[in-house]
Amino acid sequence: MNSADLTESDAPHDRPPARPDGNPLRPRGVIAWLYARNAAFATVVVLLAVHVFVFQTDWSRTSGIGEMARTAAWFLPDLAYFPSILIALFETALIAFWGTAIGMAVAIPIAVLAARNVTPFGLVSYWSGRVIIVLSRSVHELVFALIFVSALGLGALPGIFALAVRSIGFMAKTTAEAIENVEIGPLEAIEATGAKRIAVILFAVLPQVFPIFVGNVIFQFDINLRRAAILGMVGAGGIGLIFAEQIMVLAYDRAGTVVLGVVLMVLLGEFVSNRLREWLL
Amino acid sequence: MMDELVRFSDAKAGYWRFVRLRRLIRYVVVLLFATYVYWTIWYLNIPVERIWGMPGRVATMIAGRMFPPDFEYALTGTVFMSILETIEMSLLGTVFGVIIAVPVSWFAAWNVTPSRAVCYPLGRAVLVFSRAIPAIIWAMILVVILGFGPMAGTITLILLTLSFAGKLMSEQIEAIDMGPVEAIRATGAGEIKIFFYAVLPQVKAAWIGIIIYSWDSTFRASTILGFVGAGGLGLYIRSTTQLLDYQRTTGIILVVIAMVVASEILSHFARQRIR
Known about the structure:
The structure holds 2 protein chains of 2 kinds.
Chain A: H1 28-55, H2 59-62, H3 64-73, H4 86-114, H5 122-138, H6 141-152, H7 156-180, H8 184-192, H9 197-231, H10 240-248, H11 252-280
Chain B: H1 8-43, H2 49-66, H3 71-74, H4 77-107, H5 119-132, H6 135-146, H7 150-174, H8 178-186, H9 191-222, H10 234-242, H11 246-274
Helix pairs in contact in B: 4-5, 4-7, 4-9, 5-7, 6-7, 7-9, 8-9, 9-11, 10-11
């Protein structure tokens, strides 16, 4: 193709003439509406921020950046105290483990209830499963711990049950979603052999759901390590009691040591669970 | 030819050896697990006999002391204002948390980080450190540093959003197509322009989903922060339980559940709209 074949409309910079009503892909009304919406949102956020940071805060008590930095420096960990929290850290990890294990055992039947395609008694069991999931997910572990402490007394046991009840929701929800998204092919293949319902669930549903379930259980254990670290505040066992005590007696450096211990425990837990996930899946 | 044939008795013996080994492993695993259970019960001083009485006691407590819930307390006066304060805190925490999470997640994404020697470890450290400390512990520390009130709670929620959304957002960046990044870099654009013209358009939709989801989880967390004096209605959960006024506690908890369900429905529809 030589240059004589090129017509004027092939020129790369040839554009249609500008429309009088502007760009048809960005009509003015829509753009104005978007700007107005974003501006309104920003205004609301700024007003709320002013409300919280200026009117709701006692700045005379906080007294400046330097004082804040000095207060924060109180939390620098006292490493000599570290060995005496190791046992409590270990207990915390045990509470997290058993909370996850019991929660896992309870979450499986609830997931079956709350999955629309395998729920045994229609809408009744579906909604009861959903309600259990919502209750478990929307109440904080400290509230569960308070209830179990007043029912079981102090110690690790209420902590384990509080974590179990709290973690049912997430595990049952994700598992129910996995069951609902099961591929229908293998299921029909097993059904076509004349298998009973239980065999269909065992050999078609379970192999598809199991990897997702295991991944979520490991993830839940990571979260539960963090949750177990605060349960002691209400007397449900673990490191939280030591942290709350040290804050109360104003031994902030020791409280800082506890924080350091929790960080190390959580990082170790994450490392282990990453290895475990790679090994299992 | 003869030595390649396996005699029937040999095959049977091999089969039994395999089955016995499998049974043995199974028994050992069960035994180890039982030992572990027993050891935990001993180590944590768990009063096993109390477990059997637990359902009865929990039922008595819920039916006798927690019901009927006192909604009037939860929906009037200072408690209602604290509910509004909780919503305010969660909104501010999410907005400012996301504003901070954008550069942090950009720094912490290995493929487009402005500098792998400085910015990447910095971003990772911020994400890991804010993630490793539970929100309540952040709140207690910040209450000591900043004093009681919603500011400590808001900053806790900012850290929570940063840890939660920041990690997911940087994972999204790490999964982008590198073609546009190279194209923009070839024009001589700096790192900031690469972020705005090559990275952001690719992750925008996923990020909005993450932000909505993280508002949801921030809102759940914000309801308890008052427990340690960091603003919101957690304060009233604590005071009513300490006064053993469980009917009022139940009222507050049910209001919290209703709000969480409402926020979940809201975020569900918001996510459907952007899809």
